[in-house]
Amino acid sequence: MTPPPALAIEDVACRFGAVQALDGVSLEVRPGEVVALLGDSGCGKSTLLRIVAGLEQPSRGRIAIDGQVVAGAGPSVPPESRGVGLMFQDYALFPHLTVAQNVRFGLAGRTRADGDPALDLLAQVGLAALAESYPPTLSGGEQQRVALVRALAPRPRLLLLDEPFSNLDRRMRDRVREDTVALLRRTGTTALLVTHDPEEALAVASRVALMRGGRIVQVASGETLYRRPASLFAARFLADAAEIPGTCRDGAVATPLGPVPAPGFSEGVRLRVCLRPEAVVAGPPGSGTPARVLRRTFLGAATLLHLAVPGLDAPLRARLAGRGPYGAGDAAGVTLSPESVLVLPDED
Amino acid sequence: MPTERAALGRLAPRLRAAGPAAWSPRVWALVAGFAALLVLAPLASLAVEALRGSSGLWPHLLAYVLPQAVRDTVLLLAGVGLVVVAVGAGAAWLVAAYEFPGRRLLDWALLLPLAVPTYIVAYAYLDLLHPVGPIQSGLRALFGYARPRDLVLPDVRSLPGCILLLGFVLYPYVYLPVRALFLMQSASLIEAGRSLGLGPAAVFRRVALPLARPALALGASLALLEALNDIGAAEFLGVRTLTVSIYATWVNRSDLPGAAGIALVMLVLVLALISVERAARRRRHYAGAAQRSRRMSRTRLSGLPALLALGLGLAPVTVGFLLPAGYLAVAALERLGSAGLSAAIVSETLATLAYAGVAALFATGLGLVVAAGPLLSAGGAAWRDALLRCATLGYAVPGAILAIGLMPPLSALDGALDALSRQITGTGLALVGLGSGTALVYAYVVRFLAITVGSSEAGLARVPRSLGDAARVLGRGPGGALARVHLPLTAPAVLSGALLVFVDCVKELPATLLLRPLNVETLATHLYGEAARGTYEDGAVAALLIVAVGLLPVALLLRVSTPKT
């Protein structure tokens, strides 16, 4: 018998007045898995998280945690009885309680003979020295760690994280993110994370559910979602790309860069060829399609070239390792890297 | 299904049923319903009582009581309304638009008259302006008159006298919100007016004042409700208002249906007042439109204009606070020097503090629970708003109306308890409700519940929603989240509400006069008794104590209304 999923969301809908926040969402999270809900603000991802936590009620559908139905059949199980942890975007640390008291908040009634579990947990993330401080005196990164430890302390069956890194500056974010993922792995925590940042979703989650307008449009591993987006929307959400519109003729799309194969599309379908920088290979003049360098952007480890190709409205971007031999105004040649080219049905 | 049940069984010890959360909204509905009932019961009983009166009741009231009482009350309200708006808005504009030596002092000193209840200002001025009192004697000495009858001042014991005195202690109700609004108003609106060719006076009249209309309406309605609640000043100064008539009808003629009838008429007046205020505030959305922009810069005054501004600003403070409080201090010190602190004053002070303290405690607890409703039950509901509005209706019901409305149900309750006791034990019970002070505390709580509900609501609104959610997810029920997170964070707001109620109870006169247990005096009723008898014994001491207590919320307001920079 396979164990029940840690979290099962079945056909959940939620309506606030005239706004349909969620419209038939289904998703399963397996034990030990970290899944990201990715989408723009207003797509319903935070509402879904709050419904799972029990802070909002779905107007339709079921939620089951470890096989136990907590919403959708009979009276809804209140948040305090669901055994979930929730880490808030603003951390929601209680300002009138010390760091240790914050962490102990969810441990009420559970005492252990061998020391204070709150202090042990704080020591694990290097915050033992701040146990008696009050949250407002802590830095953003420290507050984030306290919030994470507080949510994990009661050993929740499922940890929910609402934009857990969005209040940190960029430099700090990468480190905190790695630490957080390591802690989740170490504790074997099942987690559902909400984010609007594709990079973050790819870095943290084993699977990503992309949401749009109250629905899930694609659930896949981060790599699949990036490499094989199921829709133009998904392709656009994950990365910027130059788009060349066209029509499927004899299994290919004609572009100024030559025909691009469009396997599986029927004759006459309107398509878009999406060229991310890694799909565009810049070479010396004479190789491939002639192009001219408009501008180069030095990124440190790599250089981004902006290339004008006759017949294309917008410039293409190509990524070069190192500095590359090209300057603005230089002539160049462009070829495509076939495995990175995306061909998707037009949506507009 | 079997797997599901197995999983449920496995998890059961870690999970509680939905029960504990489900009762909280129901408990709230019960408490809020109880609070609403507390308010509505006396109003309903008023109507019943007035209908039960003899057939001659209404013709009698209409012929002999109501014409003069309604006329005096309406004239008093109109006059007080004019004075509080003129003085309150004028003072607010003075400290908001001009800079002059002493302005920062005036900023808060203008609030001081809030500490002086209407009956105390009347009590003080009766003596101050007495033909042999300090003011008239001083004027005679100044102008060389020998005898009182050589210099005859207009008698303060008149409707105009009453209007002026009430106006000069009640104007802070207008000053406070209007000043806040002027300070919030953006400089660009004022400057736009100036650039379009308006002088300072025209800007005040055509830009600032219309913008302040919602605050003016709010402040004036609060001041007028206070004026309507007044019993002492009107009676000492010989104005026969509805409140005075209610009291006289009940105390002198023991005519409860008659008093209830007058109270009903007064209730109509209250409703009219509130609907006028609502209408004036209807289009209030433009009031706060410019909150984030630059503050108005003050025009700097110097020389004679500065002196004039200071004098203008000091006038209401002097009339409304310095003169009466100074007189009371001198008179109280003389009394204490000659007779010492009387035992009566000590026991009256204790009684005052006890009633006010118990009422503040109940009002705070009840107010907190009522205000916490939205936190305890999910989703907005129309019935919840309705309950909340009913529970906070009492602030608009003058103490005399409340007291008269409370008497029939409480005496019925006393009678029932007495009969029950006789049946069970064979001996009767004395008046449990009316005789023990329960009635008085009841009236205080109903009258001032809006204050504690309001301050609790304001405090709770400042607690971010995620904190409450975090407490829930960390395993607390709605009540637990309230107790462990909201309550500690809301304590300052709740306590300030409790303090305001406490002080208002100490100052409250009409309900205290009508509902206090037999032979119990509070500071306020003591003062009333002496003024009514025309004796001047411990009255000044009692009045000074009340004013001293009344200064507490002024200090509190000061802290709240001074922006931290």
Automatic annotation (TrEMBL), chain A:
Pfam families to which the protein is assigned, alphabetical: ABC_tran, TOBE_2
Signal peptide: none
GO MF terms, alphabetically ordered: ABC-type ferric iron transporter activity; ATP binding; ATP hydrolysis activity
GO cellular component, one term: ATP-binding cassette (ABC) transporter complex
Domain of life: Bacteria
Keyword ATP-binding tagged: yes
Database matches in PROSITE patterns: ABC_TRANSPORTER_1, ABC_TRANSPORTER_2
UniProt xrefs under CDD domains: ABC_Carb_Solutes_like (cd03259)
One annotated GO biological process: quaternary ammonium group transport
Domain ABC transporter: 7-238
InterPro entries noted in UniProt: AAA+_ATPase, ABC_SmlMolc_Importer, ABC_transporter-like_ATP-bd, ABC_transporter-like_CS, ABC_transpr_FbpC, Mo/tungstate-bd_C_term_dom, P-loop_NTPase, Transp-assoc_OB_typ2
Record key words, sorted: ATP-binding, Cell membrane, Ion transport, Iron, Iron transport, Membrane, Nucleotide-binding, Transport
SUPFAM superfamilies noted in UniProt: MOP-like, P-loop containing nucleoside triphosphate hydrolases
Entry keyword annotation includes Secreted: no
Entry's family note: Belongs to the ABC transporter superfamily.
Protein name: ABC transporter ATP-binding protein
Record organism: Methylobacterium oryzihabitans
Automatic annotation (TrEMBL), chain B:
Major place of residence: membrane
Gene Ontology biological-process entries: transmembrane transport
PROSITE patterns: ABC_TM1 (PS50928)
Keywords per UniProt: Cell inner membrane, Cell membrane, Membrane, Transmembrane, Transmembrane helix, Transport
Keyword Membrane: yes
Coiled coil ranges: none
A GO cellular component annotation in the UniProt record: plasma membrane
TM helices/strands, residue ranges: 74-96, 108-126, 158-176, 259-280, 301-333, 353-375, 387-407, 427-446, 481-503, 540-560
Entry's localization field: Cell inner membrane; Cell membrane
Claim: Cell inner membrane is one of the keywords in the record: yes
Residue span(s) of domain ABC transmembrane type-1: 70-275, 349-558
Pfam family, one: BPD_transp_1
Topological relation to the membrane, as annotated: Multi-pass membrane protein
InterPro entries hit by this protein: MetI-like, MetI-like_sf
UniProt family annotation: Belongs to the binding-protein-dependent transport system permease family.
Protein name: Iron ABC transporter permease
Organism: Methylobacterium oryzihabitans
Lineage: Bacteria, Pseudomonadati, Pseudomonadota, Alphaproteobacteria, Hyphomicrobiales
